[in-house]
Design a protein that fits this description.
By secondary structure, the chain is mostly helical. The chain is built from 17 helices and 5 strands. α3 packs across α7 and α11 packs across α13. The radius of gyration is 23 Å and the shape is globular.
Length: 412
């Protein structure tokens, strides 16, 4: 009997997820479009093709650039930077880096690079002057591409408008400002001999295509896998969820996607809306706008097939007693909680309604913490963020209370 009750509860939750997917897509899609317009994501520059023989290679290169999400990192979108002109600041625990200009400008870009220069940079992480790139540049994923793939990428980049935008030097702390120290990292973590992706003959063509994209140009593990202190994904937690700039990158392995058919996963890529509702936020929004939405549906489904075959364990709950910074609660709320609490799905208290204030008044802040951490009704513990510390969830509740107070005050 108990097994039947548990089964009924699981079925109920599955039906709730399905209800959300059916009832709210039009509103969420409209909200997504409005929000995206305000972010001013740049369009891909039109390629100038001089020889008909280059058309196919340019088209192939452009698609691979989109698979690799190159524009998101090599464009300073928030400051109105030109596509692929670089300048985006990337903060690391060891200092700041600025992405380089990869347009065909001969002075500040890659206009003077040979094919060998470019292939060595992309697949081996070594610049034309012989220095090592920091592994924030995911060359250890890009080396899964063939030389022909990378040459096609250069053909596309050579065909877009040149932008004169000087590169900024890194601002790394000592001793990480010495690039030659990357040699040790490469010895430990860069398996160049593994090289170009080799299909698994025991798997389907679609599975292999998905594996190539995820393990190669898509470099999905860099965000969705917990990293060690040197920025390397921990293999045992492969794709099982992590935090990126305090945004929650969810579990996307077989366990995390167990309730979603491949078509539902593809819809996330296509529409910028999470399965439970709500817009993708944080770094994943950049990935969706600059990469995933451009993929062929067959590739979307191939990615889903591969992800749903990955079996890995969830990382332990983070050892965090206080939020990482003052924005940690906001970012967790935006990336994991707002999908329900911004819309009132399945009875979730809406932040812009007085109900939040009533619950706070009648039950108290500590009870709200307890409900958020332990779960209540259709809401799973911690809103499904298995790796979240109690402190991080409490910070998200604090943000929700503050947001609700602000919205309520605005009404009066």
């Amino acid at each position: 009997m108990r097994g039947m009750i548990v089964g009924d509860e699981k079925l109920k939750r599955h039906l709730i997820v399905l209800l959300v997917a059916i009832v709210f897509p039009l509103k969420l899609f409209a909200d997504t479009i409005a929000n995206n317009i305000s972010l001013h994501y740049p369009e891909y520059p039109r390629a100038h093709i001089e020889a008909d023989a280059d058309k196919a290679r340019v088209a192939r290169g452009e698609y691979l650039v989109k698979l690799g999400d190159c524009m998101a990192c090599h464009t300073d979108t928030s400051n109105g930077g030109a596509p692929f002109a670089g300048g985006l600041r990337i903060d690391t625990p060891f200092g700041a880096l600025f992405t380089p200009n990869i347009t065909p400008d001969r002075d500040t870009g890659i206009g003077n690079w040979s094919e060998d220069d470019f292939v060595t940079a992309v697949r081996e992480g070594i610049s034309p002057d012989g220095s090592y790139y920091y592994p924030v540049f995911p060359y250890n994923y890009f080396n899964r591409m063939s030389r022909e793939d990378v040459v096609a990428i250069k053909t596309y980049l050579d065909s877009i408008p040149a932008e004169k935008h000087p590169n900024k030097p890194p601002q790394m702390t000592w001793p990480f400002n010495y690039r030659w120290l990357q040699f040790g990292w490469r010895v430990l973590y860069f398996y160049f001999a593994k090289g170009q992706y080799s299909p698994d003959p025991t798997k389907s063509a679609d599975w292999n295509r998905g594996a190539f994209i995820v393990e190669g140009p898509g470099h999905c593990a860099l965000c969705h896998t917990e990293l060690n202190v040197l920025g390397v994904p921990k293999k045992e937690y492969y794709l099982a969820g992590a935090f990126v700039q305090d945004f929650y990158a969810p579990n996307i392995n077989a366990q995390g996607l167990r309730h979603l058919p491949p078509g539902a996963v593809a819809e996330v890529f296509k529409r910028d809306v999470k399965p439970s509702g709500g817009q993708l936020l944080g770094p994943m929004s950049d990935v969706e706008h600059d990469s995933l939405r451009y993929l062929r549906r067959a590739d979307m489904l191939a990615i889903a097939e591969y992800l749903k075959s990955v079996n890995s364990v969830s990382p332990p709950v983070e050892d965090l007693q206080t939020p990482l910074n003052r924005n940690a609660g906001r970012k967790l709320y935006d990336s994991n909680c707002g999908a329900c609490h911004n819309t009132g799905v399945v009875g979730a208290p809406e932040v812009d309604k007085r109900r939040v204030r009533r619950i706070l008044r009648d039950q108290g802040r500590e009870n709200l913490y307890r409900v958020a951490i332990k779960g209540d009704g259709p809401m799973p513990p911690k809103g499904g963020c298995d790796i979240c510390s109690d402190a991080r969830v409490e910070a998200a509740v604090d943000y929700m209370i503050k947001l609700g107070s602000a919205e309520t005050s605005a009404v009066h």
